[in-house]
Design a protein that fits this description.
alpha/beta; six-stranded mixed β-sheet; six-stranded parallel β-sheet
Length: 942
């Protein structure tokens, strides 16, 4: 037998779990699940519940969504006893996490919209807290992930909704095994599934090995009670990854057993802030620790960070600039404090705080410094360490300071080890790329000048001759390159970019140049900028490190003969920003302006952010995928800057793009060698263009073996062959997605014509439509991820189609008209968001277009037609499902505004007649599907 069937995997896993200490229980359906829950809660709480008492408990457990149930799990359930006293039930022991009741069952059947049978369920005190879905060896792991998504939609919330208490999912095909936290369907992503690992970051992928380590009862309880974070701002659960877990464990152990310092080296983009805050949170529960102080840089403490930190520990963050509030936290019973290094420095420095702060000098205070490669190498670190004589200090960094990359200050060259002693855990960039926690870089070096004063081209390194580097011809060439290639690099502006330059002088020249080109109609990019306007604004770090820009600035610009002060320039640029976004900032509200820019970059409202040093360290935006570099960088500064681009988001974001207008190749290789190893370049940097062409050629060969012609897809004899075709063409799409970002990409380089590619894509989408519409059929295609985000192109929408319709209307030749009509049909068939509109647009072409005499009125007439069809569609939805029409319109409007699908309770409120409990899940899911289809058809892509 070459492939291990799922039932054998299942039986073997259950047997293994019994050996780990679980008790087997047979549970066929929800009735037996509820009966077992009563028994286990009574056992765990050493009590007996009457039917009336347990009914109260069950009603309480049925309330809420996934996030609210996670909070319920961690609280005690109050109920009224038969004798009128108040009783309390503990659902899970979080303090002594090994002291819970552990059971395993499999093949529980739940019936909601459809009947589903779950693979393996782990029960803790009777509640299903871990759900394990298995696929036979040889199948994609993503299919198991998609299956849990189907169950979520079909049956998890049936009846009392006890499967809403699942905290962790485990998915496996035997050879690969991953875990992830439970979340609503619209917040789930396969990118957020993780392998477990050993402390040295070697992966544990085999199901048997994973179960021995991760599913051991005590370890599993520890993960659930200690290492799942309830994120209040996003209302979702977050499971820590293995390297985060080991880092926190190392810090906690260090505090329990020693008074030594230590640091964590986790690469940029690996979630250091979450790790460090979780460590701080756990340390607050240690009796020997008086306070835990989490220290960040002022510029990192933006609105979102404040909201997030306060969500973990209410009131721990004071976002004001008032140091008095911090001193008050030090002197009261606040156990966890989050503050900035600037305020902490003021608290220990100013005489007026001496009375209150002096009482803490010998207390056991643990300081945790976020991004400790930055502000810790001046007087502040020394001052804090000398002031708190019994303090214990820990640092987190993605790019430690070693002797090779240490910059001099008044204290000489100091490394991270000098300040924080031992490295407690290490997770470097090669580990993160291997685990698919960050992306590789695609680095291109663009030649920007030829032969001037002995400087031949970009192969000369560290060019700092201002007359060459700031020559108008060169800056103009760089600006033109960015304008010409920005859409390619950012997938038609689906992502944003940053442009870092050498100094403020160069920045102002680039900004003015790009602004002039926009006024000339050469581009419509939204460009914003921010920079320091301190005294000596031209002072730069000659070594190419990123210097920290202070957020304190001069009150008034100093008069300079014949030269505009940087503050005046920035005022002009902020005025442009205000004009774009309707804001009213000036340099007097610099910090508010800083935060607003950060927010808009993350929300893709800014196409290019032009900077000198700001935002090059510590700024995380998953929607940023490209950095243009006209700046000397090296070592940690280089890695930090490049790493703005490599956050994981979706299938389309396949790499971080780095476009260098200087030759930083040697500096890049040295930085990679310092922070990974000398052989790591191939792991960290994307292969050359020619390699991907070769990969594409092989993928085409495989596709043609399965389907030699487009029409042969129709004749594939079985679902197995159809699955092979889907998998083969999906690989083509993935490769084309990467190839499309290379400057030199041309379709002529590929061994397949663009028309054939589009035709195969049409067949691919036809298969997807069949699978989507036939939900009741059990098929091996049900859980295949078609990765539709790789197909949609932002420049193709209804407006684009309308422009083609205008051309079609104005075409007199019958042959040309038929050709254009086919082009329109092909475009609609090949774009995921237009396929849902295809029938309506074709109806307009057939019934309306022939009678439009003036093509200039076509857009208005189409809008009238579309609004009428939209009204008819929502009226039909209300009539067919017996919904209140006015409430339905409000519900859809709220969905469009919040971008969050309506909850079951919201849909029930729109119904003219509430359904019975038995049918509620089925009916509400059917209505939700129709609402989503309505929005997809009439709103998205317009």
């Amino acid at each position: 037998m070459t492939k291990q069937p799922e039932y054998i995997l299942e039986e073997n896993l259950v047997t293994q779990l019994l050996g780990l200490g679980y008790k087997k229980v047979t549970i066929k359906d929800e009735t037996e699940l509820i009966a077992n829950l009563k028994t286990q809660l009574e056992l765990h709480n050493h009590t007996t519940l009457s039917p009336a008492e347990f009914k109260q408990v069950l009603n309480h457990l049925a309330k809420g969504n996934i996030f609210e149930k996670a909070k319920t799990l961690r609280d005690k359930v109050a109920y009224t006893k038969d004798n009128s006293d108040t009783g309390y039930l503990e659902l899970v022991n979080q303090v002594h996490w090994c002291q819970n009741q552990y059971q395993v069952t499999h093949q529980i059947t739940m019936e909601g919209m459809y009947k589903n049978r779950y693979d393996v369920t782990i029960l803790v005190n009777g509640l299903p807290l871990v759900q394990i879905e298995l696929k036979r060896r040889g199948l994609e792991l993503k299919e198991a992930f998609n299956q849990t998504g189907r169950y979520e939609g079909h049956s998890y919330h049936t009846g009392s909704g006890l499967f809403g208490y699942v905290q962790l999912f485990v998915i496996s095909n035997g050879v690969n095994t991953k875990y992830y936290a439970n979340a609503p369907l619209n917040q789930r992503s396969f990118k957020q599934t993780f392998f477990w690992a050993n402390p040295d970051n070697s992966l544990i992928t085999q199901l048997q090995d994973f179960a021995n380590v991760f599913l051991e009862p005590c370890q599993l309880s520890k993960m659930i009670t200690k290492y799942i974070v309830l994120n209040e701002s996003a209302k979702m659960l977050m499971a820590l990854r293995p390297y985060q877990y080991y880092a926190v464990e190392a810090i906690v152990d260090r505090v329990k057993t020693t008074t030594k310092a230590g640091y964590i080296w986790h690469t940029t983009g690996s979630g250091k802030t979450l790790t460090s805050f979780k460590a701080a949170q756990i340390l607050t529960n240690l009796d020997e620790v008086h306070k835990v102080v989490f220290v960040v840089d002022r510029k990192d403490l933006d609105y979102q960070t404040i909201k997030e930190f306060n969500s973990f520990s209410d009131g721990s963050v004071d976002g004001t600039t008032n140091t008095g509030a911090l001193v008050k936290q030090f002197s009261n019973d606040t156990k966890l404090i989050v503050t900035t290094i600037q305020k902490l420095n003021t608290a220990v420095l100013k005489e007026k705080h001496a009375t209150l702060m002096g009482k803490l000098k010998d207390k056991r205070i643990v300081f945790i410094f976020d991004e400790c490669h930055r502000s810790q190498f001046g007087d502040t670190h020394k001052r804090i360490k000398e002031y708190f004589t019994n303090a214990q200090m820990f640092g987190f960094t993605g790019t430690p300071i070693f002797a090779d990359n240490a910059a001099k200050n008044d204290h000489g060259k100091r490394t991270t080890k000098d300040l924080f002693e031992d490295c407690l855990h290490k997770y470097v960039i090669t580990d993160a790329i291997k685990d698919q926690n960050v992306l590789k870089f695609s680095i291109e070096y663009i030649r920007t000048f030829k032969g001037k004063e002995g400087i031949d081209d970009i192969d000369i390194e560290d060019i700092d001759r201002a007359e060459v580097m700031e020559a108008p011809q060169r800056l103009n060439a760089v600006a033109d390159y960015i304008i010409a290639n920005h859409a390619r690099k950012t997938h038609n502006r689906a992502f944003t970019a940053m442009f870092c330059v050498q100094d403020v002088s160069m920045l102002t020249q680039y900004y003015d140049l790009l602004k002039a080109k926009k006024q000339e109609g050469k581009h419509d990019l939204k460009i914003a900028t921010i920079f320091s306007y301190e005294a000596n604004p031209d002072l730069e770090d000659a070594d190419g490190f990123i210097e920290e820009e202070n957020l304190k600035f001069l009150g008034e610009p100093e008069p300079q003969y014949g030269k505009v002060h940087p503050r005046e320039k920035l005022e002009t640029y902020i005025a442009d920003y205000n004009g774009m976004f309707g804001s009213n900032y000036t340099t007097n509200e610099f910090y508010l302006y800083y935060n607003d820019i950060a927010k808009r970059v993350k929300q893709k409202q800014i196409d290019i952010l032009l900077v000198v040093n700001m935002f090059l360290t510590g700024f995380d935006s998953k929607t940023l995928n490209t950095i243009y570099v006209d700046k000397n960088l090296k070592y940690h500064g280089l890695i930090q800057a490049y790493s703005r681009t490599n956050r994981i988001l979706n299938e389309v974001k396949s790499q971080g793009n780095v476009v260098c207008f200087r030759n930083l190749k040697e500096a890049t290789d040295k930085a990679i060698e310092l922070f990974a190893n000398k052989d790591a370049v191939e792991v960290i940097v994307l292969k050359p263009y020619e390699n991907y062409i070769a990969d594409f050629e092989k993928a085409v060969e495989k596709l043609l073996e399965i389907a030699p012609t487009v029409n042969s897809v129709n004749d594939l004899p079985s679902e197995a062959e159809i699955l092979e075709f889907v998998t083969a063409f999906r690989e083509l799409m993935r490769l084309k997605n990467v190839l499309g970002t290379f400057t030199e990409f041309r379709f002529d380089d590929l061994p397949i014509t663009e028309q054939d590619f589009e035709d195969y894509k049409g067949k691919y989408l036809d298969i997807r439509d069949v699978v989507k519409n036939d939900k009741e059929k059990v098929s091996i295609l049900n859980d295949i991820d078609f990765e539709l985000e790789l197909i949609h192109r932002d420049e193709i929408n209804v407006v684009y189609i309308l422009n083609l319709l205008v051309k079609l209307k104005e075409t007199t030749s019958k042959a040309d008209r038929e050709k254009q009509q086919k082009t329109i049909a092909d475009i609609m068939a090949g774009d995921t968001r237009l396929r849902s509109k295809k029938e309506l647009i074709e109806k307009f072409i057939l019934q309306n277009l022939p009678y439009i005499e003036d093509s200039t009125t076509l857009t208005d007439q189409f809008e009238t037609y579309w609004n009428l069809e939209k009204l008819r569609a929502i009226e039909h939805l209300a009539t067919d499902e017996n919904l209140n029409f006015d409430k339905l319109q409000v519900l859809v409007g709220k969905y469009l505004f919040t971008q969050k699908q309506p909850l079951r309770e919201d849909i029930i409120e729109v119904m003219n007649q509430r359904p019975g409990l038995k049918d509620r899940a089925t009916i509400t899911q059917r209505i939700l599907d129709k609402i989503v289809d309505f929005v997809e058809t009439f709103v998205e892509g317009m």
